[in-house]
Amino acid sequence: MRRFSITAASLVAGLMAAAVAQAADNRCGYGDFVSFAQDGVAVYNVSPPGQGRTYFHNNGEGCPDAPSCRLKSYLVVQDEVLVSKVENGWACAWYGRGDRHTVGWLKKADLVKSAVAPSGEGDWLGDWRFGDNQITIKRTKKGLRATGDATWTGPVSQHSGAFDGLLEVKGVNAEYADPEGTEPFCDVRMRRVGKHMVVADSGSCGGASVSFDGVYAR
After folding, report:
1. Domain segments of the chain as ranges
2. Were both Cys, which of 14, 27, 105, 216 would link to 57 (CB 3.0–4.6 Å)?
């Protein structure tokens, strides 16, 4: 009986671990997208069969495969998206137009990768905006310097956040980090792709609910 109990417990633990892994694999929310993008992101064009539509899919239980996961949002041929993760035939994608954006799973078969020229150091310079957030990158004698301002507006209050300092640039990646020992510690990672800069922060760069996470454009 004891051996059976141990085996059963191991089986349950294995099933739980598999469930957790599956849940992690199907994540494709906004925070997931910008985080994945720091390790790799690419520009794709929509090219659905028959020149039709391709729909975004959610990342809840059973998603994105289940029919119930399909969202109302869709794209048409030649729409441009950013993809930060590909998993089991699905692409975690971002689409934006003006101040509106959508993140979710798209069928990988409905996308064609675009050829994008590699980013050089000069491609970082300028005023980058995402909603009310702004990150300005300038060249100085010591290297590239970034100044960021972010706000979050609630029903009765407004919170803000900021950072300012030199960037550590490695190809298409750049990072700002507070001096060691700073509490709370603000870390902002950036990734250049096409005409965009994808940003993910540590969640400690301002007041409550303030975040630099986003897909920025100049």
Report:
1. 26-113, 121-217
2. 105
